[in-house]
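Data availability (excerpt). The following record was deposited with the supplementary files.
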Amino acid sequence: MIAKLRPTLRQVFSFSLLGLLLGLAVLFYLVLHGLEKTLLRSSERYRDLASREVAQQVTAYLNEAPMAVTHFEQEVKYGLIDPRKTDSVEQGLLSLLLANDNISEATLTYANSTGKGQTANLVIDQASAGQLAVLRSTTVGEFISKKTWFNGSQFVSQSVILRGNPTAGATASTPVIPSVDPTAHYTFQTAVYDDYGQLISTDLHWSQLDEGLPEVKRRVEVSVQKTIEDSHAHFAGVLRVGLMKSQIDQAVRIHITDQTEGDPHLIFLCDNQGRLITGFGNRDIVAVSGIDLRVVADDMPVMVTRALQEPALKDIDNDRPLAATSFSLGNKVYLCTFRYLPGTQDWIVGIVVPRDFYLGTLLQVRQQVLLASLTLIVVIVVAGGLIIRGVVRSHSLILKETTKMNEFEFSPTHNSSYLRDVGEVLVGLERAKTAMRAMSKYVPVNLVRQLYNQGEEPVLGGKSCELSVLFTDIKDFTAFAESVAPEELAKILGLYLQVMAKTIQGEKGTIDKYIGDAVMTFWNAPEAVPDHEILACRAALHCREALQRLYDSPDWRNAPRFETRFGLHRCVATVGHFGAPDRLNYTAIGDGINLASRLEGLNKYYGTHIIASERIHAAAKDKFEFRLLDRVAVKGKSEGIVIHELLAERAEEKSRPELVELYEQAFASYQNGDFETALKLLERQDEDAPSRVLAHRCREFLTNPPCNWNGIHVFDWK
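Predicted structure:
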């Protein structure tokens, strides 16, 4: 399970590259998102500050009316103004307008009261009621004084225009005309009966200055009113001070014009029902909305119309004085701030602005960063792909070379990599392969493979194993070696042993050692080999054929053809590592190994090429043709063994040679002691070397019969 979860180098690089790209994307998102949040918080603070400034300006303007009321009230209290004398009142009201250009009107509605100043007991004497108002004319330096009184039967009024120095008196007057009871006006009624002694603020209402004009031409103002008492704390009337709405509009517009050119902030006053108090131009129209006057702006911007529909607007009050919201309009997002305006009829300062005003530069930067990021990502992907491709290729080269080494394929290659460290690894692997190729010329490759697969180091010791052993030797090689130069000898012997080794290894044999021109080989170790007797026989025959091809090739030149003799035996021997602890030799030792060497030497006595023991014959007789050669006791042995001559691989349709059949018949007679019969059979094939040897032996035994004949020929030489 763990092995399945182990990633490849390509996967590691791919995931790393993907992680890098995701990291960059997250980093860009966090940075840009953080900047966006920072800018939006800054914009919210800016709108909050702007709405606060507008609220302060509007509040400061509206506070001018209460200040005028307080001033008039103080003058009455200290007797500077006598509310019972119209001239004194007129001068007092006029002084308010002269002191403050923002005041549009100052009006005192008076009447005698029989009450004690308590609202519930206050009774107004209608005959004593009247009103005195000083209004600011539209003509600069001109004021209008309007008086209303009860003439015994009805209320009448007359206006006087004051020009030049107002204190000089009236300069023009209008006829007396019928009027209405001023104490019936709601401002008087509210101040006297509902909020006696309290300062009362009104919402927008028509200016008294434009009384009688059509509504489309009338101006709008706001006012405050309060009951006034004389210096004796008796009810004197209700004072009303008015301010023109145009000045409120001007206060908002001044803040707008103070902004930088191209600033898209839209600032306005409204109520929580989404009705405008201030407009956006000279064409603003005021109309009755419910019981209030509100602006109907013909050129109201669509974003303001949308802002006035925000649900947050309805929740703005003195307890929740501030709210920030946003909305989408078309393909743009707008930010909006609402601030409650205390001291008013629940008026609210509104600011709306496109979000792009704050984020425009950031959005451009984001587009540029996004484009740069995409370009960078493409570059990273392409470069990363090329790097991954190069690294994976280099890794594949290393993996390929190590796999070949694991499979004991040490042929040289010429791999290279543009990565220096990978190149060094490949060079190191080539050097290791060179060392292994050199080692394989001294040590059996199968042995090294076995030790490698088992993860073991060679140690002194061995184990018993059944082997097929082959010894080879060249006839009269010593005499040849003495007749040629050492360089030539090495070259010729190298060609010879190369053919022998290639053929033997092709038949899965393990070459134990070279002893000059001799070769010692065994099968079934270090790796088990099935039918190793057959492989050993086949190797001997193929070596002989391969040598004939070598002798016929141009590489052999004029060198003599060697006659190679082979000895084959199957035995149980001890196979392992022998020698000193720091210098080992992998080999096989045992009596059977010596016997195989003795069998190879017997070839020169019988004139044969390949002699095999009975154990080899028993295992391989179904695959190869053998000749029963003799029963012998090699030097150092008293027991006899049967030996055979290996002739060729068996062919089903081919019969055995006649001389082999005659030899084996003669050998059977020889074993029975019938030397004469055996000699007669052998005399007809004098060209066969083993037949000549056996015939010569029969002649000697006919001349000197052996004692205690057992059919075993004993050799006293190696």
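Summary of structural features: The mean pLDDT is 85.
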